[in-house]
Structure formats: C-alpha cells, structure tokens
Amino acid sequence: MPGIAPLSTGVIARIMHGEEVNQPVLQILGIKKINSNADSERYRLLMSDGQYYNSYAMLASQLNAMQHDGLLKENTIVRLDKYITSLVGKNDTDKRVLIVTDLTVLNSGAEVGKKIGEPVTYENALKNGAQSKPLASSSAPVQQNKPEKKPMLYNNNNNNTLNSSINAGLTSPIASLSPYQNKWAIKARVTSKSAIRTWSNARGEGKLFSMDLMDESGEIRATAFKEQCDKYYDLIQVDNIYYFSKCQLKSANKQFSQLKNDYEMTFTSDTVVQKCEEMDDGGIPEIKYDLVPISQVANMEDKTALDTIGICKEVGELQTFTSRTTNKEFRKRELTLVDMSNSAVTLTLWGDDAVNFDGHVQPVILVKGARINVFNGGKTLSMGGGSTIKINPDIPEGHKLRGWFDNGGGDNITNMVSARTGGGNFNTEWMTLQEVRLRNLGAGDKPDYFQCKAVIHMVKQENAFYKACPQSECNKKVVDEGNGQYRCERCNSLYPNFKYRLLINMSIGDWTANRWVTCFNEVGEQLLNHSGQEVGNALENEPEAAQAMFSAINFTSHIFKLRCKSEMYGDVTRNKLSVQALTPINYKEYNKYLLKSLKDLTGIGSSN
DNA sequence: CCCCCCCC
C-alpha cells in the first residue's frame, strides 16, 4: 500500500514492558468514550502494532479535540510523539496503562480502510508464551519494570514507604489519576499557589489554600483545608517539585477551574507531601508561558486568561476600598505594562501582591493566567485564582525587554489597550458631537463614554503644560517659590526641580459640530509625539520648536475616545469632554459604523 | 469543606 505508513510491528510488547520506544507507529482499531458524565470526558483507545493490540490506552484529555475533529477514526495510523506508561491496579493484577499525550496522524482511517495484520491481545500472547521480553534497545527505560516483590505499600503514612516507592520510580502521571484508584504517588511541579483564604457559611467555617500541579502528562488542582492548610502552606512553593500521595480525588467543577483535568485533589490527614530535592527534574516540564504580545490583548475575549510579559512603566498607589456588594475590604495596585508591540495595558495586583510591589525600578513583569476584564471599553488584566507574577524573571524574553526599554523602547507607546491611560476602539458607542448634546450625555452621576471620528481644528499652546511635583507618584502642580525651589502641597516638600505635565485644550470637529476637549499628559504625549518634558521645554524655551510640534497636528483626523461629564463650577454647569484615547482611523471598523448608520437612516438593508 | 477574585 503506497503512502501508508508501516506499523512498528511488535512494539506494543516493548512498550507494555516499560521500555521507552521513540515514536512508535500504531493503528487505531477503536476509540470510545468512558466516564459518561457530562463534565468528564476521556477516551480509551484500542491500538494495534499489527502483531499485538492493546486496549489499555488512554487519550490525554488535551488531545480530545482531535477526536472531536474526527481525526482518530477506526483504522487511522498514528505516530505516538509522546506517551507515558503507568502501572495501575493491585500488585497481582498490575496493568500498564498507556497514556498518549501527543500524537501525529500519518494516515486517515478512510485512507487506510482496513485493519492491518491479525493482531492478538498482548495479554493473550503472554499467556500463550509469546515473546514477553523487550526487544534489544539502547534506550533506557523511563520507569522501572514491575518489581518482583510487592513494593507499593501505601497502608501507612510513612515517608520511608513513600520514599522506597518513589526511589523505585513508581510515580504515576497526573493524567492517570482518577477517584477509582488510590495507590499512587505523583511527582509534580507547583505552578501556582493561592493565598490562605477563610470562609464562613451555613455549613461551617474554615480556611484553605489551593495549588496547581503539573507534570509531563497534565495538570491538576489540589486544595488543602484547615489543618492541612497550616501544615503545608509554607512547604509548598511555586516552581518546586514535590511528591504527593494519598490525596482524595473528586470530580472537578469546571465552573471554577480552567485546568485541563476532569478531577481535582483534596489533601487529607493521610496525605504525604515531600519536596523533591534531586537536581534532575526527572522530565517534569518547566512552567510554560504562552506569551501574548500586549497589542493582542485588545483582540481577546473578556474573561480570557493569558500569559504575558512587559515592563512596568508606571505604577499606581496602593488603593484600599470596601466592596459594596460583599463589604469586604480590598487592596489593589495598578501597573502599566508596556512591551515591544508598543502597547500598554493595565495589570491589577491584589492583596499582598499589591502591598509589597515596588515598581519604581520599572521591573520586567511576567504574568501567568492573568484575566481580561472589560472596563470603560478598554481591556485590563487582573490577577485572580491561579494567576502568578514574576518580577524580573531570568528568561530570554525578559532580558530582551529590559534591553529594549533601557534603550528608550517604551517612549513611543501608541496603543493603549486599557481605558485609563487610553483605550481601544471596541465596545464604545459611536456618536457624533451633535448627538452628545442632543442626548444630554454626561448628565448622570457617572461619566459617559463614546467615540467619534474628528479632525483637530486648533490646539491651544497657552497653558498646555504645568509644572508638576517631581515625585513619580505625584503629579500635583507645584508652587514656584521664585528662588529655584518648587513646593508641592500634596507631598508637603520643597524640590529643586519639577517635571512638565501636559494639559492640552483643543478644538475638534466632526461633520455635525465642534467641541473643546482636554487631553491629559499621556494622550498629549502621544498626540504631539513628544514627551511632556520635551513639549514643556519647547514651549518655555524654544517657541519655534513648539510651534512645529503643535502645527504638525492641525487638521489631522483621529478616532477619539471621549469621556463626557457635566461638572459644576460655582453655580454654572459645564459639560466637559476629555480625551481618553486617540487612535488612527481603522477604516474597516469605522465603515462598519457608517454602513450601519446608513441602514438606520434609510431603512435599506435593515431588518425592519 | 472553597468556588470570592472585587473598585473606578
């Protein structure tokens, strides 16, 4: 059969003997779903090497999608790129389960069209005296073969017992754990660890912490309550590898966990945890980061979890507030992360992370599992369950960013993914400047936000900047003492210097109306394409340079994201517009709005 | 046995 990959004949005998075989090629003779309950999905495979077949094979759940896509039909020939074997069951009936964690389809079932060879079960072949020894191979076994004497005595809570099992190499892959078998030990890396949390409800009260564990086969969440919480909290550290045994397994509630496992673990009084001190990590993978460029965050769905890395360009004050809904007090701190996509996003830290954070050195921040929140039409990242941050991580991406930023890389951030320091072009209602008046926007307690396409008519150079407190966290206007000293009333300090901050008023117009709007520092810097320092200096000392900067933007068109709020000055109410963000015109998006407006106006092409 | 992840 030309084009059909040859099977690795007889290889199942070697695999089931614990030998590591590189990329065996097998044929799928059947696949069926086990565990029929709705939130648990797992497939069992019947696979043949043409000589033997093996029904104790499982598909790791991260490969379920291949089955969903119809890629694993009967007769399909696959190459096992990664797999793990594990002994399960009581000693006398030990079975070696094969868990496939990565595979490549070589020929589709339709292409092959039939079962190759006349395979028999490996177990029957053994009984009938067929060759049971592994064939000659230079590769070392991953796991020890089944020891002759009964080694797996987990009937007491004794570390020596655990050690002997572990030393014999008898750890199970996480993917093989289920509530139906409890004699196992896993060797896993801690990828995240929660803070200790207390609860109190009708069913009682207590405390707990949870952690996420990972090995080559998969991941699982574990929770330690009460006594176990106190006992293990300090021992468990992110990135370390531990042996765990005698935890209770139960179905995971998918509502609360994004981890790819149908089960989760609870520590019990019998649980044994032991730190793995070996230098060799034994194939336990490093924590993997799927780093998303900050610019991409704008295109991702609300509530998505993601990994990213950026420079903490700005850091906010620690804020404390009481939640209106729960009456709980929260502490948070907002960081502005920037990266080489010339984009910025806000990352919110909570609790101790927020309190202890020192951002003044503009560190590299690596974050795993941060969640997207939509706020004011922008997107922010927030730490939550399972999220971790690392400050100045020793990884190539971190060093690259450091070099980029220290050479001025962060000076031209043009894309503000979060609304506070800018904003995107998503989810914000389009409006004309006339509609803003007609609809009485900004009259409520909360500001209104909208976007419009407008052209800059005139920019005021007078009072376009002010002299602000030089402290990085304080932007209050300083009082010029006239003797080379500047006084900040907020910090109650005298300084020999100040920093320029922009506060630009300009007139913009669309086809319906003109309005005066205010740009604060960051947007002003983006608009004028110069730092506040440069603009302030030019305005004070180099009028021609300043003129050039300001006239360069006259009659340019942009998408303005505006905040609208009516404010009282004495007994006069003024409706104020401030520019939250400024973006180049995305004609695809803008035309969508125009087309919709046309439909609404004419009724042509509309549904009603 | 938790399952909240907040606020502007």
UniProtKB/TrEMBL annotation:
<dbReference type="InterPro" id="IPR012340">
    <property type="entry name" value="NA-bd_OB-fold"/>
</dbReference>
<dbReference type="Pfam" id="PF08646">
    <property type="entry name" value="Rep_fac-A_C"/>
</dbReference>
<dbReference type="InterPro" id="IPR004365">
    <property type="entry name" value="NA-bd_OB_tRNA"/>
</dbReference>
<keyword id="KW-0539">Nucleus</keyword>
<dbReference type="GO" id="GO:0003677">
    <property type="term" value="F:DNA binding"/>
</dbReference>
<keyword id="KW-0862">Zinc</keyword>
<dbReference type="InterPro" id="IPR007199">
    <property type="entry name" value="Rep_factor-A_N"/>
</dbReference>
<keyword id="KW-0479">Metal-binding</keyword>
<comment type="subunit">
    <text>Component of the heterotrimeric canonical replication protein A complex (RPA).</text>
</comment>
<dbReference type="Pfam" id="PF01336">
    <property type="entry name" value="tRNA_anti-codon"/>
</dbReference>
<dbReference type="GO" id="GO:0005634">
    <property type="term" value="C:nucleus"/>
</dbReference>
<dbReference type="GO" id="GO:0008270">
    <property type="term" value="F:zinc ion binding"/>
</dbReference>
<dbReference type="Pfam" id="PF04057">
    <property type="entry name" value="Rep-A_N"/>
</dbReference>
<dbReference type="InterPro" id="IPR013955">
    <property type="entry name" value="Rep_factor-A_C"/>
</dbReference>
<dbReference type="GO" id="GO:0006260">
    <property type="term" value="P:DNA replication"/>
</dbReference>
<feature type="domain" description="Replication factor A C-terminal">
    <location>
        <begin position="449"/>
        <end position="594"/>
    </location>
</feature>
<feature type="domain" description="OB">
    <location>
        <begin position="185"/>
        <end position="267"/>
    </location>
</feature>
<keyword id="KW-0863">Zinc-finger</keyword>
<feature type="domain" description="Replication protein A OB">
    <location>
        <begin position="294"/>
        <end position="392"/>
    </location>
</feature>
<dbReference type="InterPro" id="IPR004591">
    <property type="entry name" value="Rfa1"/>
</dbReference>
<comment type="function">
    <text>As part of the heterotrimeric replication protein A complex (RPA/RP-A), binds and stabilizes single-stranded DNA intermediates, that form during DNA replication or upon DNA stress. It prevents their reannealing and in parallel, recruits and activates different proteins and complexes involved in DNA metabolism. Thereby, it plays an essential role both in DNA replication and the cellular response to DNA damage.</text>
</comment>
<protein>
    <recommendedName>
        <fullName>Replication protein A subunit</fullName>
    </recommendedName>
</protein>
<dbReference type="GO" id="GO:0006281">
    <property type="term" value="P:DNA repair"/>
</dbReference>
<dbReference type="Pfam" id="PF16900">
    <property type="entry name" value="REPA_OB_2"/>
</dbReference>
<feature type="domain" description="Replication factor-A protein 1 N-terminal">
    <location>
        <begin position="7"/>
        <end position="108"/>
    </location>
</feature>
<feature type="compositionally biased region" description="Polar residues">
    <location>
        <begin position="131"/>
        <end position="145"/>
    </location>
</feature>
<dbReference type="InterPro" id="IPR047192">
    <property type="entry name" value="Euk_RPA1_DBD_C"/>
</dbReference>
<comment type="similarity">
    <text>Belongs to the replication factor A protein 1 family.</text>
</comment>
<keyword id="KW-0235">DNA replication</keyword>
<dbReference type="GO" id="GO:0006310">
    <property type="term" value="P:DNA recombination"/>
</dbReference>
<feature type="region of interest" description="Disordered">
    <location>
        <begin position="131"/>
        <end position="158"/>
    </location>
</feature>
<dbReference type="InterPro" id="IPR031657">
    <property type="entry name" value="REPA_OB_2"/>
</dbReference>
<keyword id="KW-0238">DNA-binding</keyword>
